[in-house]
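Recap slide: Amino acid transporter transmembrane domain-containing protein, sequence and predicted structure.
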Amino acid sequence: MRSESVAPEAEEQKSRRNKRVVDENAPLIPKVQGSDAEGFDEFNGASFCGAVFNLSTTIIGAGIMGLPACVKKLGMVPGLLAIILTGLLTEKSIEFMIRNSRAGNLSSYGSLMGDAFGKYGKALVQICVIVNNIGVLIVYMIIIGDVISGTSSGGTHHSGVLEGWFGVHWWTGRTFVVSFTTVAVFAPLVSFKRIDSLKFTSALSVGLAVVFLVIAVGISIFKIIIGGIGMPRLFPIITDLTSILELFTVVPVLVTAYICHYNVHSIDNELEDSSQMHGVVRTSLALCASVYLLTSFFGFLLFGEGTLDDVLANFDTDLGIPLGSVLNDAVRFSYAAHLVLVFPIVFYGMRVNLDGLLFPSSRPLSQDNFRFASITISVIGVIFLGANFIPSIWDIFQFTGATAAVCVAFIFPAAIILGDRHKIATKKDKILSVFMIVLAVLSNAVAIYSDAYALIKKNKTNT
């Protein structure tokens, strides 16, 4: 919805209750047509708490499982500070997006990039969202396979829940577990054509994430009381240049943990009072950063140098506490179930963007059953293959985090500020934007180099 001039803020807030957002050229938000449009017209706007809930759900995903490994690489003090710094930079990048969207009266990330850089900019952000979300969905499937059937790391096999209960059988193996979950659980959930149909599963997923965190923190505190935990390493182990470069491999994981930019406009469009959006962002990021800090602190405290890339896989050992095995299973099941329920939300956004990129002039995806089914089945197949051939979530975090995620989270918002199409950026904004781009490009370039070097060295050693 566009107008020749920007209405006063008070008028904008008042009219938002009955605002209908229709942007046929912005596939980052669902198109509203037919009967859906009538229901939207009756919608009086989302509350502050509802918006915080939705944005927090977007943020908290599989990234939380890799953060304890980040702290292990950096040490407790630099690791926790890095989590806080990434959260602060994320808040600023989202502020850049919102401010420029207000100035141009734009209702999606795609239209924002299109306004700043034309159709190629819009296509680029769509591609990055697709790559990032497919990578995240592969991570979800990998974690579910790790939790249910088990995983191996450093020559040590960590049994999954089914293996621990019933032993090693073909039906407790990774291939069968992932295949069954894909067909019996993911396929039905991703078949919904409206994201609103998933609101109850989304609410349940947040509750399951909280269950995981409460149990993990409780176990750590109990072990501290009984003296079962030693002093954690506070700083990184640096021996040579290679060890320094390896520290940068945590950057893509940190970026992936906070990425939520592709849902910011959708949440803002439904918010009853648009002036509250900055508060929504700050509250959501503060909440998620708190969860991340607690998970990282207690996860590394509990497992120390044995912390795995996917900390859920650590919950298969004897914790030395009463009912340890029951709590282990509860932790793993609660978060695996959380990821199962978040999967369709991430898939929905990816599918809408993929359809908008490939078929920009076609009728709405919800009205074309063949196109809907073809895209859904094809992408599910790609994700399934990725989950079976990529053994570690750290590998996929490095790829998506160092490429698509860092572009969506930092490089694109900073580039929009530097372009300053609407002449609203301050000198401080531009300096911070340059810092974001330089930090993002250099740190992720070093991370990619370090990962490639480590992979080549590992292959030479094996041969």
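The domain at 53-458 is CATH 1.20.1740.10 (Amino acid/polyamine transporter I).
The mean pLDDT is 80.
(End of recap.)
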